[in-house]
Amino acid sequence: MNLLLYGAPGSGKGTQANMLRSHFGIPHIATGDMLRAEIAAGTSLGQKAQPILAAGHYVSDEIMIAMIANRLRQPDSRRGFIVDGFPRTIPQAEALDTLMHELGRHFDRVLYLRVELDELLQRLSGRLVCPQCQRTYPPGTALCVADGSDLVQREDDKAEAVKPRIEVYLQKTIPVLDHYRGEGLVSEIDGMGTIDDISRQVMAAVTAQPAKRA
Ligand code: AP5
Ligand code: MG
Fold first, then answer.
1. Nearest residue CA, atom 5 of ligand 1?
2. Fewer beta carbons below 10 Å: N end or C end of the chain?
């Protein structure tokens, strides 16, 4: 099972990926989480990426394509994967097509979580994350259920970074959806309900008849 999660910042990609990862036992490959791990580890890539993420801009296609190519070639990806946060630009989508072809794989489904702007802004401003395992939590949660860490606010959820994140998503990432619509792979999910409601819709889309491939 190879799945691609698509949606705006705060649409619930990470939240639904946790559910899918537990259900299918396949890795959740989130480029944002990978960049934050590089930043936390203080690598040269992390040092380069930190101000870009903090400002709500995109890291270069060149860096991101190399990062996903390396990750999808890891042995644990052979069982399948849930990709979250990539591709975000048309050149990234084209590079991913080539990579999937080279790996002899295809996406079974692209899950588009559709959420209204006001709701996105509310979720991002209230979100808490675990600095250790990067699980996300709604406002009011104190500790991570997985490792007991104190939760923190993500640097790019501060008000000044949220507007550029939404703007760059509308400008560069919305066109990526059409790339996959053309292949008949996209399932649109109403992302405005409760987390459980949305999980049910996601599972129904994933277990539906295989998409007709172009
Ligand atoms: P990334 O980490 O991918 O951030 P994002 O796309 O902005 O998405 P988020 O992680 O903010 O939201 P989400 O959809 O996962 O929502 P979540 O489940 O947490 O990327 C970060 C940055 O890295 C980018 O800005 C860019 O700089 C860089 N980057 C990454 N990939 C790149 C690439 N390919 N190219 C270039 N640059 C790249 O949910 C949000 C909140 O809402 C949580 O608190 C959650 O508990 C809550 N919530 C979830 N579902 C519901 C619900 N149904 N009802 C109520 N609350 C809910
Ligand atoms: Mg996320």
1. 9
2. C
